Each structure stands twice: as structure tokens, then as C-alpha cells.
Amino acid sequence: MTPDALGPADGGHGHGHGFNGDLDLLVGLWEEARFARLPLDAPSELRDLVEDIDNPKRVYAVHRASRRHNFQSLVQKFIVQLRDGCGADYCKTPTCFTCRKRLVGRAPIRRYNTTSARTLAVYLATQDNPESWLCPGLKPPKAPPAAVNSLLFHPTGRDDRGASVSLKAPAAVPRGGAGKGGDGRNGLQSNPIRTRSETRNEGANGSVKVESRRSSVSGFEERACKQSQEPRFTVTEQPTSKDYRSFAANVFGTVAFKMLEWLTPAAIEEMSKKARLFQGNPDGADSGDNHNPRSENDTTPSRPSSRRNISQPLGGSGGESKQQAALEQNGKPVRERAERTGRDTKLDAQQREPATVPTQRRNSNAKVRTTSGPKPKRPLAVEPFNPDSLADDPFSGLLRSPRANGGPQDRSTRGIKTTNSTLPRPISQLSSAGYFDDVSLEKMPPLKTVDFKLKVGRTQLDGARSTGSTSPSDAEASGVASERSYSNSSDQAASGDSESDDDVFYPQALPKLDTDVVDFICDTIQADGTAEQHMLEPPTIKKFYIRDSQGKPLKRRSHAARTSPTNLKLEWKLFAEQTLFYVLSDPDLAVRSFCANGQLYDSQTLWYCMLRMTRIAPSLVFDSLWVAAASLFFPPKPLQRLRSPTSKLFPKYERPLTNAEAGRLLSICLHALVAAAPLVKDSRQLSEMSRIRSHGLALGGSGSAAQQPTALCLQYEDAFTDELAIRLARRLFAAITTRRYFDEVVEVNSTDTDMKEADVLTPLFSQLDLPSIDCVYILNFSINDRAVHEHRVPILLLDWARAIMLHDWDGSPEVPGDGAFGGALALMEAIYKKRHDLALPRAQFRSEYFAERLDTVQMPVAWLHHKSTRQRAHLLDFPFMFSSSTLVSYFRSINFARMSRSFEESTSLQEKVELLASRSGITHHYKDVLTERLKTAASKYLVLDIKRERVLRDAFDQLWKREARELLRPLKVHLGERNGEEGFDSGGVQQEFFRMAIAEALNPDYGAFTVDEVTRMTWFVPGSMEPEWKFELVGLLVSLAVYNGLTLPVTFPKALYRKLLGKPITELHHIADGWPEKASGLTKLLEWDEKDGLVEDVFTLTYEFSVEVFGQHITREMKALSQASSNTEPTGEEWPQFPDMAWQSARKPAPQAGNPDIDTAPMVTNENRNAYVSDYIRYLTDVSVRRQFDAFARGFHACLHPKSLSLLTPNILQSVVEGVQEIDISELRQYARYVGWDANHPTIRDFWSIVKRYDDAMKRKLLEFVTASDRVPVGGVKNMMFILQKNGTEDEPNGRLPTSYTCYGTLLLPQYKDREMLRERLAMALENAQGFGFA
């Protein structure tokens, strides 16, 4: 990560701009920053919208320079920590040299060399919240930085083999052609200081006369020119041996990385001392140690200035004096802005006589003094949200406008000195290593003074409106025309009031970014060719929406001939960058920009705006939004009221956001991340790329989940590895869990239910739910674009969540429940719950990367004992990330582990009993008695001895009253052995037993279950006469089959599996498979338009639920759920039951006796039809069969762990119980194996040709004949064994039939002489497949 990619050094979530209190640095940056102003050729519509910026933290040039400074300072601290340590006796920081030395004891320890320390320091400084890695006891270094020792200073003329090193700051040519600054020679030297403005003199009558800077040079400028002469020394780097095979040495040992140390304040100060010695000035005269560039004895004539000297004493004498400058006097505003009239005034008079422009001279060393003038001035705003809070800031007096009136100067007041950093941070006056592209540190004020040289505003010629060049040297080379290329604001100042004290200019920016402004700015930057060089695709974006005929696009005005196009390009670039940063870094302005009528833009319009902005300045957009996202971590007002009155946990000036505001800001930032991805216009391609990245792959080559063009895959990789975008995504995801935690704390500590806010993700889903009534549709896109975008945003959000998870995952199934990882999981879970509204398939949420690297056996078992908290979660808590086959394997691993444990416990007990009997010398009788009493505990298997004539009865008799530990043991079934069958149970006998038992149990003739004649679905009989214990045993049979990994020949509706998993049944699609006719009729009822007739007249339905049982029609009026009691069964909702004994019929009235009269039943109308549908579904699936289902559920959960069932969805559980009924012969042939046969043998080809023509019934018979089950297991044919083994040759017509080993999925197929004999013999075997020989 480069220094530009880093945020402020604080790195925390609670600071939006993070300047660490370095007010002295802030003053210097404000003084030298290039101010952006509205260019001359701007549309007239923008001139009324532009506003001035008086807060230096909101100036993009200051923000960017501070990031560089903070990064270099942080690297310096880490190097000191790694090489020298803190010296504390009980240091616990692992990266501190003192801690390492203490841990090794007396053992020798090797100190990091400069390259190693630099490598680790850069890595630590680029982490999130890097200050947490700093040692609390770190002290200032006693010696200069070690990197300076490699620099050798030689008198001029001496030759040396070492490479000469230039310590001037590199000019950022791509960002505007910064000047070279110097003569280009090697060596340590300072750049000549040139003033950008013309100076002015004030005559006796108060008139202002502007002198050309070519005719007069101040004494300070003369000394600066002298310093620019050839130095008396050169600097070379000491030659060192280098391993060119070492990656670290070749990367972190380059000059570019060494500059990180050479340009730190401490290193610059050390080099300055050495340079002064060679310059013959060991005392530092005129070297920058003196804060006043003009010494007291300097007799160089200077030009008088019309600007009053203003000074603000540091740490003022009282709050009254601090507030005086902020008040209004004489009814005039605090800061008078330049008049907006006369924008089109020509500069002809100025070109003839340059004495009419009231300007101030740019003097970075002028003292900040108070004035006794009559006009009150405005204080400089520092805080981003609440300017009024400056009264509480102890440093607010330091950041006053230089134009502010504060009364006479208090010379007795001593200012304070800020010392926020642990290490000293002097800035040498000699170095040219600036933080701006064209500003050297020599122009910045030294940090040893408390007289901050701050000019809040500057005249237009004082760098705010550049002359078209990006550095003083370029300004001089551009000629007279460049010096006189003023902006419209300059024209205005020239034609305005002649009071020069008020002609001060501030940076300008637009306070709002709507679609027209975004299009105009992006079109301008792209047309000028000044966009940022980036890796996002496509590199440029043009308008592709359908423009409204009423809208009028913004257009640039034709600029004057005196202004060169190069100057305008630079001015537009500066203004665009400042506007984007000003708006996007402020949460209020960002939300306000993309809202209309109090509602967010629609998702596609918002995405379009972000798409265009990220293609001209992606780094700026991502960094600005990262700054704004810090406000998401400010606690809400209800939570702040819970704190102690004396607590300083929450800063007073930070304005908290409500969940609605936070959600809108979060949605804006997330759409920026979506816009970073390549522009794909095919939803299928979006899904395929998501599948590739879910495997952790960058390229989708052969054998991968999907294949896509290599170029597109690399474009995806560039977008999802962009460091600034990743940093933004990490902060956004961390904010999700933080906001939810705030809501939990507020809910726990508040009794007011009205205070509960909607979830922070609600605005996002309101946009994604198309069509949405909670957003405003701004731009018109085509139908195809709308359809693709409907899938684009949720799919790419899932991809971003996976990218952060894969980036942070350490290989453990236990993951953080909060932070960026937990927030990514929370976002995926929220999208998963909304997948039906977003039209996303479940496969879109899979993250196969995790499944491929987790232990399939041990990990699920360990998860059973894991207790998730807010800080620690488990990947299996989010089963939607895994495929169905993976979840089934985890589910069966849990069952197998429980079975193995039960088996081992019984085996161990049996061995102990035998050992005890052999050593105790007990008689054979007592041994038998002991064995009999411990039979239940010592049995290794659950053995069932079943007769074919009474399968269900024997099963019920032997399973009744079994202990839970017995049911968990491996199952062994003896089926028909008393009748001479030789079946040996290796799996096939179990399958046969369950097939026969479940078929008998679900027989409608018994009156417990009913089978739909159309769908063949099995359901409970409402009010059945069968006792509840029989339903419990049927559930136990199903549970045993699932526990032992067997499928059953049953077909239950999905509603049953939803109920078994505890999921509600509230939608019509929940009952569509089991009762399609009822679902269709209820759908028509809901969609009926009363224009075609009233609901009660057309449908004539009463608010009742009716069923027909045993030939009796039973009807009950449905009760609303709100009318029911909340604890036990709802009042009036108990469905009537038929008596299970004859003698009970006399005591209870018949169920049909309670049917209500037809005349008294209420009708279904338009007003209550929605409630009718909800209540009907509830009565159908719950109320009418509640007793029967509850008994069935008790038996079903007897063998299965409740937590293991949470891995399964209703569809997966259905496939586990029933298997897959569709049999694909082509897929079966693909995965079949052969023993004694060849795949190309004529008999094998005839076999598949015959089987392929079978109908579904014959296909199921074939599968049951070979595997003992007519269903395909979960995961498809590839998860089952189907083996064709040669069983000799058969030429006789009445010869052997095909046989099978069902336990091993093997078909013993003889070689017949022709196809007809094979078809006949195979059909005969399938039609008469019952009983076992060896199974």
C-alpha cells in the first residue's frame, strides 16, 4: 500500500479526518496549499451554487498532504520501535525491540538492519488502526535515524563511487505538471522561492498601487535566490553489498523506500545540520531556525503592504477574547465574501496598467496578529460537522482567521506548544521534501514557534487561482500571459470594493453533486485528459441513459483568449477534486447530494453516478467515502445519554447519525464499491464470475466452476484487490455490526419501544427491492439495463463480502463475529433472507473456498460444542455459504461421530464386564446375571429381528420404550431369517426393511395418513383416530433411517420439512407443491380485481376452514392469530379429534356436531381476504393436524441433534429423507463402473440402450434392484455406487437372470447372446425382485 493509499494516521473509526491535533502542521499546510476555485469558463448555473471553504480539514490538498506526513511520521516511529525499543522494563508489545530482548533472556538477539526495519515498518504502518501496534512507552530516539548514516556529505568537486542522491521532493507531473524545483543537479539544496503574486504599496491617500514583481524583490526573496545557488557539497549514498536475489532487498532497499526515512522530520533535521556546516553556517543563520525570514538587522528595503499585520496570541487570555473574533460587529457579517457581481468584467485596463488589482503579498512567515480595524472577521472553522463546538476546543484560539479582529495584541500571553506525537517532528528549512507536489518544506513554518503563520484566505493571485503552472518555476516559465491569467473571481475582485483588507479568497467547491453536475464534471475531466490513471475497467464512461427532453445539460462557456487551455485544464482538475472531496467526505453533504424529496436516488441512478466518478478519480472517491464512513461509528443520541456526565468517551462535536441516515450513507458507499467492478451487461456472466471468485480463483480455466474470458477475470481481480476500495469495504462492513450493537445496547437500556429504529441495512434493501416506492427514480434507463442492474448490485455486494472474508480468513472455522469479517457475514445473511425479493438463487451465496479447506469430519463435530458470541462466530452458523452436498456431508459426519461414540462406549463397557468376570472368579450363573442386567448398556448394535409378515408391528414392538443411547448405536436388521432367508445386513437389508415398514405405516387404510391422488403427497389426517404414540413411532422410523444414512420411498410436502426445522409457513409458495389447487385458488382470490365484481359475490367464501374425514364434513370458523392466547394452544383453535376407542364415542360429541350454521359464518370480502389466506394456510398446515404433527416431530428428533438440523434447509432435508426421484440415465452411465466388462462391449452398449428407453417406473425398479432404493441420494448419481460386474456367459433362453449385491450397488450381469435375450431377462428380474439371497 502506498502512502497515498493510507488514511489519516489515527486510523480509528471515531475520527472523521484524523489530523492528530497537529495544529502546527495544519497551519503550514493551509498556508501553502494550492486553492481550487471555480474556473473562468464554468457554466453560469454553477456560479450560484459554489461556496467558499474556510475549514482547512475540508481542503483536499491539505488532506492529501497530511496523509503523506502522517505516514512518514508513523514509519519513523515504527523503525525506532523495531530497532531501538522503548526501554521499559515490562514492555509487552511484540514488535518492540525491548520486548523481544526481554523474552529471549540472556540468549543473543539480533537487531533488525535498516532494510528489515523499513520493510516491517511499512507493513505495520499500512495496517488498519496502525497506532495499536505502537509501543505505549516509545521514547524519542537518542541518535539520528540509522538511514541517514548511509548518506555521505562531500565538499563540491570530490568524486566518489557511491551514487549521488537527490533529496528534492519528486514532482507529480501526472497530476498537473509540477515544477522541477531546482537546477536538477544531485545534492541537497533548496528551491528558489518565487512569489506568485504582484506586491502592492499603499500610498498616503490610502490608494493601492501594485508593483510588478519583476521590478522589486523583497529581502526575503533575495536571500532565497542566494540559497538557490550552487551548494558547496554533494550527497552520495554509501556503497553497500546487496543480494540481488533477495526480493526485500531489491524492493525495500530502493531509493523510493529509503526516502520514507530520509524525508522524515528527524532525518531532515539531522541532514540540515550537516548541510549548514558545509555551507559555512554552523549556527544556522538564515537556515530556518529563525522564524522571521527577515532578521531584525536586515536593511534590505521592502515594499510596504496594505495588509495589516494580524496576530492571535496562542492560548488566549480568556474565553471572552477567543469569542470576540467570532462575533459580528457594526451589523456586518463575520467574513465578507467577494462580491458576485461583475463576473464578466474584462481585464483590459489591468493589462495596460497592472495597478488596479487589490492583492496581498503571499508571505508564509507573516505573524498572525490582531488588528484594531473596524471590520469584524470570521474565525476559521476546524470541525467538520459542528462549527459552534470550537468554543470547547482548547486549540480553537490557534486557528483564527488572519483577518479576524481580536483587539490589541496581548504580548504578555505565552502560547502553548502542541506535543501530540511521541517523537520530535522538526521541519528543516533546508529540505525540499514537501508534502505538496510543488511546495517545499522550506516554505512551511518551523514547529518550534507558537506564532502560527496562518492566512485563512488568500488573494486570487496568491496561489488560490494558479497562473496556470503547478510550481513557481513553471509559473516563471509561462511568461507574462500566464501571470495575468485570472479567473472570474479575480475579475470580480478587481471591479469590486477597493478595500484591500477584505479582498481575501478561499477555496471553492460545489456543495452538492446531482446527476447533471456529476455528468458535467466527469465529461470535463475526460475531455481535458486529466483523469486519474487507474486499473478499473472501462477506463472512461459516457452517458448511456435516456435523457429527458426537458433537461438541459451543463456546458462550458468559451474562455477568454488570455487564458490558456492548459491553465483551464489544471483549474478544472483542482476544482473537480476539491468538489468531490468536499461533498463525499462529509456524510451530510453526501447524503443530501443523492437524495431528492427526502428519499434516496434509485439504485441504478446512484450506481451510475458512482460509476462515472470512479472512472475519473477512484482513489479520491474511495478515500473521501472512507472519511465520511467514520461517522457511522458515532454512537446515537440515546446511547450518548446513557454515559456519565463527566465521561469523555464520545466527543461533543461529533453529530451522531440516525439509523436512517447511516443506512443511506452506507448505501451510497456500497454502490461505490459496486461501481468499481467491471461493467458487465449480461446477468449470466455476472453469476458465472461470482462462481469463479467463490472458489477463491482469479481465472476460470479448465476444470473450474465456470469459464470466462481471461481479460474479464483480470479486470475483476484488479477491481477487488484495489487497496483503497478494500479499505472502504472493511470500514463499511465493520459499521454494520457496530450499528447493530448500538441498537442492542439502546434496546436493553431503554423501555421506550418507540425509540427502536429500523435496521441500518433497510435503506439499501429499499433501493434493491424493485420496483421500490422508497426511492426516487431520476434517470431513465432501458429495460435491458434495468434487468441487468437488478442482479448486478446484490451479486457484486456478495462478491465484495467474500473478498473481505477471503482476505482476512486465517483458516480457522471460528471467525470474528464483529469487525469487517463479521460485517461481511451479516451482509451476506441479510441478502440471503431477502433472496426471494432479489430473485437470487441459493447457489449464488456459496463460498466453496471455505468448504474446500475445512475438515469434513472433525470440524462439524467441534461446531456442536461451539457457543457463538458477538465477538466469535463459526462458519457453520451461516450454512448458506456451503453447497447442499457439503452440508449433507457435515450432517452425516455429526451423526457418524455420535454413532461411533455410542458404539465405543458400549464396547468399552462390555470389555470391562468380561475383564471383571474373569478376574473376580464369579460363577457362570452370576456372570450371566451380570451380563443380562448390563445388556442394554453393553450392546454394540441396535438389533431388530423382523418378520416379513408383520414388519410394522415387529418394528413398533421392538422400538417401543428403547433408551436414547440404544437408538444412537449402529442399526442391524434381521429380516425374514426365520423363513430361511440368508440376508446378511451390510446395508441392503436395512434399506429393504425401511421400504416395507414406511409403506405400511403410511397406508391410507390405517387412517393415520392420507395420500393426494394427484400429487401423491402424504399428509396427516386431521383429527385421526390413531393414538399419538403411533405417530411418534412413525417419526422414529424416519429418524432412524436418516440417522443411518438411508433414504425412504415417501413423498411429503415441503411444509412438513419446514415445520420440522421450526420455520414458519406463511406464504402460498410454501404449500404449492402439496396442495397446488388450493394454492392456485387462493392466489386468484388475492389477485382478483373488484372492477370485475365483488369478492363476496364472485367467490362466495365464508371465513371457515373445512375438511372431509372418514366421510364426514368438518367445518370450523377460523380465529385470527391475534385473538389467540400467547402461551399455550390458541383459544378456540383446538381441532376436534375422533375418538380412538369405541367407548369414548359415547362421552364425546362427534366432530361434525360442532359445525357452525351457514348463515352465521362471516363472508370473505376485499377487506379481509389477505387475513383469510394467512389464516387458511395456518389452519391447513398447523391447527388441523397439530397433535399428530407434534407426536411425529418428537419421534423424528429422537436420533438427530437439534443443532445439526440447523445446517439443513427444507429442500435439503427433503432430499435427505426422500432422496432425488428424478433419475438421469445419461448421468448414471457417466458415473457407472465396470468389473469384467469394457464400456465399449456390445452387451454394455445394449444394456444402456435398453435402460434409456425405460419409463420412470422401470427406472426406479432398476435403481431399487441394484441399490435397494429407488431414489438417488443427495448430490446426485456421483454420490452412489452403480457397478456392472460380468457374471459369466448365458446362451440358454431359460438361463440365469441378472442378480445384484444391494449393499455394494453391484449388478451381476451375464453375457447374453443378443439384445432381445438381455431385454427379456432383465425385465423378468426387475419385475420379480423381492427377497434376498446374500444381501
Automatic annotation (TrEMBL):
Ranges of compositional bias, category Gly residues: 176-185
Compositionally biased region (Basic and acidic residues): 210-225, 288-297, 333-351
Keywords assigned: Transferase, Ubl conjugation pathway
Catalytic activity: S-ubiquitinyl-[E2 ubiquitin-conjugating enzyme]-L-cysteine + [acceptor protein]-L-lysine = [E2 ubiquitin-conjugating enzyme]-L-cysteine + N(6)-ubiquitinyl-[acceptor protein]-L-lysine
The keyword Transferase belongs to this UniProt entry's keyword annotation: yes
Any single biological process term in GO: protein polyubiquitination
Pfam families the record matches: AZUL (PF16558), HECT (PF00632)
Keyword set includes Cell division: no
Active site, per annotation: 1303
Domain HECT: 963-1335
Annotated EC: 2.3.2.26
Bias kind Polar residues: ranges: 226-239, 298-327, 357-373, 415-428, 484-497
SUPFAM superfamilies in the record: Hect, E3 ligase catalytic domain (SSF56204)
MF (Gene Ontology): ubiquitin protein ligase activity
Region span, Disordered: 153-239, 278-428, 462-505
PANTHER family: HECT-TYPE E3 UBIQUITIN TRANSFERASE, UBIQUITIN-PROTEIN LIGASE E3C
Protein's name according to its UniProt entry: HECT-type E3 ubiquitin transferase
Organism: Cercophora newfieldiana
Organism phylogeny: Eukaryota, Fungi, Dikarya, Ascomycota, Pezizomycotina
